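Annotators were shown the component list below and the corresponding predicted structure, then asked to write short factual statements about the assembly.
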Amino acid sequence: MTILSAKFLVFVLVALAIYYILPRRLQNLFLLIASYYYYSTWLRWYPLLLLAQTAIVFGLGHWLYRSVKSKRVILWLGILFNVGILLWFLVGGTYLKGVLEINASNARTILPLLVLPVGASYYALNGISYLIDINLKLSKPTSNFVDFALYLAWFPKLISGPLERARKFLPQLAEKRTVDDEALASNLTLILVGLFRASLLGGLLTLFLPAIPLQDPASHGALVLLWALVTYMFYLYNQFAGYTDIARGVSGLFGIQLSRNFNAPFFSKDVSDFWTRWHISLSQWLRDYIYMPVSRAFLRKNPSRANIPNLIVPPLVTMLISGLWHGADWNHLVWGALMGLLIMFENIRMLSRPAQAEASIPLWRRILSRSWLILLMAASTVPFVLDLKQTYVFFARIVKGWDGVMFDLRPAAAVILSLLVDWFQQRGKDELVFRKWPFWAQAILLALIPLAVIVITKLQSAPPVFVYP
Amino acid sequence: MNWSEKRVSLKFQHPRLSLGATALVIFILTCLLAEIVARAPFIQAQIPYQAYGINHTQLELQLNLLNKYAREKGAPDCFIFGSSQAFRETDPAAFERFYETVSGEKVNCYNFGVTGSQIWSTSLLSEILIRKYQPRLVVIGTSFLDYTEGREQDINERYLKNDWLRYQTGAFNLNGWLTEHSYAWRALTILSYAAPYGMRYGEVVRGARKWDGEIADNGFALSDVSVNPSLPVETGFVKNLQKEFGDFGVSERNLDALEHLISFSQQAGAQVLIAEMTYHPALLELKDRHGQPRADKALILAFIDKVNARLRDIAKNHGVPFLEAESSVSIPDTGWYDLYHLNRVGAEVFSEWLGGQAARLLGPLPTRSSSEGN
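Structure shown to annotators:
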């Protein structure tokens, strides 16, 4: 049951109706059951893995909190347990898929044991951060198993995040929650913005098939490939950001706030800034649990600002781990290394050229630097999207393939619309800036966005043309 | 604990109903405007055919032509249902002519043969059209190719998932309802066919234009293409025998569909004729492209015998005639579109024979009340 489906809408409406009827002591339990049901719609056995992982992390959290002498051992046990599950699927599963003879009759039994369950990479990180926070005494383990299980399983964030910290999420479950006019309007606006991004802009970009040239870079010229990459980047952004906005809006309707995950990333001034605006909850997780500890280790030895190893190693390690989290293969590792190198160069450059105040930079230079950044991030995304062989072909074509073939300009409409939405949010310093627009403008948006979503969904619904055999 | 006090609560004091109401009005007005625009002659001129979401060009063109036929000539008295074989082999004009010559009764026939279909999908479409037009005669053009298991799923899935067809069979759904009633929705549907081409609508128009002049107003294929049947041709299904025949089992699902279609037609008050569509004897020589007989020839011949025996039983059980394509129908060598389809020349000969046989075997057709079939 994907978030952009009629089934999900019905599921949410039914869940909301039951939720608001139930007495509070049953509400969290109900949300947990609803979340497990939702997870089971992806694959029936998924909830079992989640439940097992939940029980073990819950137990480890208490053990860690009470332990005096074995804290470090217990913490590493917890980290290795969560990472181990990911490694089993990402590395072991991938290897075994190549070794085992999988056919139509045994695929249903074997494949679920080898393919990473959707959402597993998210609740593994949630489990790790929960244990580290207890170890650092930033939070106490909860004694309420239902609340903890709901923290890992909460259905709006289960599949694609955002990654939440237990210390922010669990108190919300314990407190009295109220959904008033303001919350209702804000969350519905978030859902509408999410629909606009995921269904309309993402859908439009899908219809123009930006990924086609990327699937076969050898057959396309440089200009076509670069444009395909940029439009594909915008497609990824709008799909993911839209999906998160809908998840946050849905969660908000239940009175549970989730963190913002995207903040106009294409208006970033550099790569480091980009990563504070793109998949923010993951970036913050990596910053707090990978970057900072590694950096602190270097700074303990040499607290100087010009500590070169501290400028190089933490970003590289962090982004390599980010790459592995996205996919345990060479191309994701290369992508992580590329990102790490870019941040590293920025760190070193900052030593000689401190950051300039934004207001003092001429507009044309700002536009140029943003455009360059979009292109740079898009180019760095190549190994994220393609395997290494195709990545090489892609860049070879970028260097040699200037054949003058013009790209398809139509997706530019969606790209410009996407940038406009970001611009309004950025300028208004409010992701719900649209609520401040005049009444008529709001009414038109409220009417036309669902209509446009219906149109785009319809356009994507046709079966391929029937070809007489 | 006070249960009601501790409940997570909704507190709405000033819900923005006016905003919602205004948006709803704008939504409805925009939909109405889109419908008016879609009905404008200029827009309709850009649309090659009314689309029903099946994305089967020939089938959807047939539906369009049938609507036009019914508007201009009234509901057909007789339908010829079947696959591409029925589509290419049965010329309603020749059928009508010989039927009238033998029986003295004038009938208007429409050929609703659909390329790629098997009897299950034929049955589904036929039921919808019989219910709508109440014909007096139903000719089911069939052959062993309707009962192979290998291709069963190809087109059936497409039919099963189509909301308009589900709506037509009584399962209400919004998409089906909109497809039936809204020009704007159908315009959007045909636009959606451009999605696999990166939204290049010209490709859809080009696909539709390929059928220009290929289908007569009465639904019959107007092909003049001719092959020399004496040359070894590995054509159509012969190329993909495994895909077509699977394990050489007879599709019980399709046989059930045939029985269902016969019963439904009879209940609707129509006479039924099962007619085996013809194929060239060279087809059964089953040679590969090098002119050598295929190793699985015996299996295929046994399959055909098995199917025909079952068809005879079904026809007998329902009291309807089963006309087997006889070698006495001498199709001229220039009458073959390929080894198992006729072109216009061959179809005329075959349809005249079929019309005459139908008139002899069926007797007078039931009369239709004036309210039916409109």
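Statements collected:
1. Residues 179-268+374-458 of chain A form one domain.
2. The beta strands of chain A are 178-180.
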